[in-house]
Amino acid sequence: SKIDCANSTKNTVVVDFTASWCGPCRIMAPVFADLAKKFPNAVFLKVDVDELKPIAEQFSVEAMPTFLFIKEGDVKDRVVGAIKEELTTKVGLHAAAQ
């Protein structure tokens, strides 16, 4: 899976757990895309919780959107909710520290 491939990289992986029916997720989609452009050394992935429920359960994702920061297979941080400022700050913190 994409997550397994991401775990094999030394770079920070930012995973956006989203759902097609989630309004706040749609609001955060362009923010996530912009951050992916600004931080090319990090890996940015989207996971649809309806399509990949076992992965959402594996990472204890209960609310959307949830953003996880994974490095070498370990969850280092998370942002729960459509909080643009917190997501931007944490991406800067984790993606810059490669």
UniProtKB/TrEMBL annotation:
Disulphide-bridged cysteine pairs: 22-25
Query: Could you name the active-site residues?
Result: 22, 25
Which family does the entry's similarity section mention? Answer: Belongs to the thioredoxin family. Plant F-type subfamily.
Q: Which Pfam families match?
A: Thioredoxin
Site (Contributes to redox potential value) residue list? 23-24
Q: Would the keyword Disulfide bond be found if you checked this record's keyword annotation?
A: yes
**Which domain of life does the UniProt lineage start with?**
Eukaryota
Protein name (record): Thioredoxin domain-containing protein
Q: Matching InterPro entries, A to Z?
A: Thioredoxin (IPR005746), Thioredoxin-like_sf (IPR036249), Thioredoxin_CS (IPR017937), Thioredoxin_domain (IPR013766)
- A single GO molecular function term of this UniProt record: protein-disulfide reductase activity
Sequence intervals crossing the membrane: none
Q: Which PROSITE patterns does its entry note?
A: THIOREDOXIN_1, THIOREDOXIN_2
Keyword check for Disulfide bond, yes or no.
yes
Site residues by UniProt (Deprotonates C-terminal active site Cys): 16
Q: Which residues form the Thioredoxin domain?
A: 1-98
Question: What keywords does the record list, in alphabetical order?
Answer: Disulfide bond, Redox-active center
